[in-house]
Amino acid sequence: MVSYAAVVRPVIDRVHVSLRHASVPGVSALYRGERPGVEVDAFYALLDHPVPESALAARMVYFAFDPDAEEARGLVARVRGSWELTGPGRERVLAVDRVFTETAERLWEYRPIATMPGPEAVETAGALIGRLLEAGQATGGPVFRALTPVWEPPGAPAAQRLVARLEALRHYRADAHRAAWGAAGLTVEEIKALGPGPARAAIEEETNRLDDQVYEALDQDERWLLLGALGALADGLAAK
Questions:
Q1: Are the C-beta atoms of 122 and 19 separated by less than 8 Å?
Q2: Which of 88, 125, 208, 233 has the CA that lies 20 to 30 A from 169?
């Protein structure tokens, strides 16, 4: 039986990564040559609630993450075991959110050759992923639970909601992947160095098995509707 998670995951990644890539010029202008930090990696959660230090460390396990250096930048701070945005940090990530939203609206209003117009696809995908995020509270891993719910201001446009929800859904799979390679007895250095082969295939299969749990909240027709809606959203190359 084909794993639905294995089918939908590259589609989710395409939409998410292309949006982030298209947003680089706008975000770079906000930072004026500085490196965006952990505030951008978790701001949809941080705008809503404090995030435990352990969860953010797990989120950043594949990267060079220096908590002291992050705090010294003045945009996030550790308070009673959790990360919170500072005043300047909140202003900065709200500006980043505007860049992401404006970029998403520009990309996704484009209508490629697909089964549904961009605006309808955004609404459809956003509603279905919202249900997945709710269902995932029962089966998701520690980072997913720490980084949800995501911040959605009253009256937020559909594109803004979908950007935030896509980010959160990717944390569900990321938890599944960390659990899979951890159960296989690998360290983060070993999984990063692990090339194609039986060991990598076994970890991906277990990741898909764990990731599939969240999609049980949708029936078969809804799963294909979600796949079609995400597939209808243009990326940066298609919209040029």
A1: no
A2: 88
Model confidence at 208: pLDDT above 80 = yes
Q: Please write down the HEC assignment for all residues of 7-49.
A: HHHHHHHHHHHHHHHHHHHHHHHHHCCCCCCHHHHCHHHHCCC
pLDDT > 90 in the chain, percent: 87
Residues 6+ apart with CB under 8 A from 234: 107, 108, 110, 111, 112, 118
Pull the structure tokens for residue 121: 């696809």
pLDDT tens per residue across span 46-89: 999 999 999 999 999 999 899 999 999 999 999 999 999 999 99
Residue with tokens 């809503």: 48
Instruction: Report DSSP state, residue 197.
Output: S
Helices (H) and strands (E) in the chain, counts: 12, 3
Please indicate whether residue 98 or residue 238 has the higher confidence score (pLDDT).
98
- Cβ partners under 8 Å of residue 159, min gap 6: 101, 104, 105, 108, 122
Burial class (CB in 10 A: 0-12, 13-18, 19+), 187: exposed
pLDDT tens-digit series, residues 106-146: 998 865 545 555 678 999 999 999 999 999 999 999 999 99
Distance CA 141, CA 174 (A): 9
Torsional class of 109: left (φ above 0), alpha (ψ -120 to 50), beta (otherwise) = alpha
CA distance 153 to 108: 20
Distances in Å between the Cα of 184 and the Cα atoms of 31, 178, 214 are 40, 10, 22
